Task: inverse folding
């Protein structure tokens, strides 16, 4: 049986976080290198989640981790940042193929984010960018963070589908490795400018993912019934 | 501050369960009174949830309660029903004003179901009827059933909004009493044919709800910024 549902990584795969976050940093912190600030801020993302994944801290929504990390990066750079700046993560532009691609995919599949972002963050991001999700899945319903297998499995359980009828779509090979490990199908869509012009990771598919697509238009073509 | 988000009761308020369920019952059980069967099936809904609300049983998704109740009603009537018939609850027609009304409301508000239906059920119902939700809230994220206050409060928490910035929309006065008790704003939209031509309950607003609207078009007009 074909995949009934497609679940998506969001930061990097659906939206360009780097450009938008840098733009909002530049607007309120004119004396810092805004792109470097965005990259440093993003670099705190994984270590902050790692403590929660490891059980060293209970589940805390990414909104709160973003705010904590904002102040850490600002402190390291000797500046002070307004709390509100962490809402920058709710205003990220989709890559150009994403909205039309999701609309096409939605005709024959359930589509939902399976991101580490919270329900609130994913909802506001979808309204900002016009992402036509059918529902919001991901870290919050699992109360844990990817790539823990429970996050992918909680998404399948919420849809009442077995993992082999759900396909994870991501621009990150490690996300797909974890999804495949949990029994899901996998689709890779490269985003070679996610990390800027010098990007060296995730430029190509590093395994025989079920689908390898150039962008969401191509993904919709390959998955058309 | 105005309500940032509107959360909706679904069965009865957004969709006509009675007509559609009766139609599907008639298709597979030609020798029973299909409308009476639908009414009996719906009558088992509240008692099944009551055990869970009271702590006598852990959270079980409404999909499973619908299936259990289907077989109970069939047994009482001396017939045998196919398991699949419980998917009838995923294929309910929206009242005529609902899709256009939700589209108008979505322009200025986050809109989400706050139903006792599961994420899977609400997602499939939205795809069937074209309900343009921004996210799916309700019983499943609270792991409990309305009218327990925790269900309304879990919806607010998932949106990261205080209850007084969230408005519950329902055709049932008791749902709004519970929402108001939890600190939410309230809007009543009557659905005088939900229970058929002899309906005697919820024909009018029974309290001074924040908004009383004729239908979702009227609700959108009253809430327009």
Result:
């Amino acid at each position: 049986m074909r995949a009934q549902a497609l679940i998506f990584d969001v930061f990097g795969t659906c939206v360009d976080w780097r450009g938008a976050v840098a733009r909002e940093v530049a607007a309120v912190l004119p004396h810092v290198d805004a792109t470097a600030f965005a990259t440093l801020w993003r670099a705190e993302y994984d270590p902050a989640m790692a403590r929660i994944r490891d059980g060293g801290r209970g589940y805390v929504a990414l909104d709160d981790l973003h705010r904590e990390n904002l102040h850490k990066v600002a402190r390291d750079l000797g500046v002070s940042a307004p709390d509100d700046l962490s809402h920058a993560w709710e205003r990220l532009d989709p890559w150009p193929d994403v909205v039309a691609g999701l609309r096409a995919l939605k005709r024959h599949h359930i589509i939902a984010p399976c991101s580490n972002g919270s329900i609130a963050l994913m909802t506001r991001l979808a309204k900002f960018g016009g992402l036509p999700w059918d529902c919001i899945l991901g870290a919050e319903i699992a109360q844990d963070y990817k790539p823990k297998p429970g996050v992918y499995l909680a998404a399948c359980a919420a849809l009442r589908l077995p993992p082999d009828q759900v396909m994870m779509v991501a621009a990150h090979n490690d996300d797909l490795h974890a999804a495949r490990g949990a029994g899901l199908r996998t689709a890779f869509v490269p985003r070679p400018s996610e990390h800027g012009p010098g990007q060296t990771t995730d430029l190509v598919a590093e395994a025989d993912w079920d689908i390898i697509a150039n962008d969401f238009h191509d993904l919709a073509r390959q998955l058309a019934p």
